[in-house]
Amino acid sequence: MIESKIVALSVIALIPIFLPPVAAGQDQGIPDTLTVAATTTALSGDYPEPFSLSISVFNDYGLKEIVVPLIIDGYSGWVHFDSVSFAGGRLADPNVLDQRQVGSFNTDSLTCDSLIINLAVASGDSLPAGSGEICDLWFRPVYGGALNVDSLPFSPQGAMHFTTVSDHTYTPRFNPGSITVACDYLIGDLRPDGSVNMLDLTAIHKGYLGCYDLDRSDPWHADVNCDRLTDLRDVVDLLDFVVYDSTDILCDCGMYYPAVYDDPGTPDTVWIEDDTLYVDIETTLEIGLVNDEILRGFALALAWDGDAVLEYSGCTLAQRLQGLNLFLENYECHGTDLVNPDTVFLSPWYVYDNIPPGDGAVVECTVIPRSTGSLEFQLVSYYTYYEYNLSAGGRSMLIGENKAAIIPTLTGGDIVVLPWLCGDVNTDGIVNILDITFLIDYLYNGPPAEPFDAADVNDDGAVNILDVTYLINYLYKGGPAPDCPA
User: Fold this and answer.
1) pTM of the predicted model, to two decimals?
2) For residue 33, what pLDDT band results from cuts at 50, 70 and 90?
3) Which of 76, 193, 375, 484 is surrounded by the fewest CB atoms within 10 Å?
4) How many structural domains is the chain composed of?
5) Residues 206 and 88 grouped into a single domain
6) In whole angstroms, what is the distance from residue 77 CA to residue 194 CA?
7) What are the backbone angles phi and psi of residue 260, rounded to the nearest 5°?
């Protein structure tokens, strides 16, 4: 009898060994599940319509906290998180899981959004056992393609987990979702007419590479090389397609090719003459380029700032580019109100000819200083911000023969603006015998007056011996005062 009791007790003692323990990270009942739906949308028109993605939960115990980190990932598509809606679902009652935080973090603006859904009880009620939708996540499509919606193991609130009303925390089952953004448009058809043609090439050149209030169009039509940017590389690709070979295939919906930046050899340089200018005297500034490879094109956004006011009048091709089969587009991108800083955008259109390696002026710009002081030029990169997208259209760059983007450096561009006195040809601040001597020296191959108009004292459009006589009469014979060109 004693032996049988011992055996029975031994069996009872062994039973707990074979029962599975209830660990903190395990679901105690039927596996709870979080499901992300699959959804589709399309890009069309001038403004992308928002779309929703449904999140559903099955739970067989009451929950006091739900934490769901998600990553919306896929290099073939691009969406931006917009908002969240709880209407019509299990959380339509705002008292249930009344502490609600939904938002994005660590967003990669080119490919994905990282999202966190954090729902908890503050002063309200827990989520009863049940099944169904808890919320809709709203997004705005940016580029077409497919995206995966998966769980994120690391977030500011930790990994995905549920917590019951009895303080048991565990990881639920997870059913990932997906987003498909259809391209209901023709890539490259910026002025939509059903084909890619010269009108589209004009639109991309002006709308994205010049002043943005001209011919603006949507970014997904213009990103013809699928690098998620709209810049000079797209212009070159579209030019090749429209002008050279229409059998070339522009990129398709869902493709992604990272932007290529490659400057082999010596860094390419843009230079602007350092110069001394004079108030109200029209002057030509030379802008040069040093490149050690063949260039398909360039786009330069030149800004200037300082206490001198500089009025821009226009630019033309310099001698180095004359004779090539191209023409120059140039815009003043901030109006003509003479307010610094100002920006001029320069970009030649290339039809057949490229720029060979070399060094020399490529553009000559006419300016008129309107006040004394100093200023400096710089290359700038400015961007177009849409509500849903970023375009790098205004970035100063060169395009190599292989269509790689080269970001140049800039040297020079320091400008001083001085006042001037008619007849003061040696710029010492007064008109006297020294100016007569200076003018005579100039007529016999000496240095010219600065500004040159200061030497045309009789305002006849030329500087010659008549101006010397005019100054002598003024200084020694009571003749009329110097009268230079206005």
Assistant:
1) 0.73
2) very high
3) 193
4) 3
5) no
6) 23
7) -105, 120
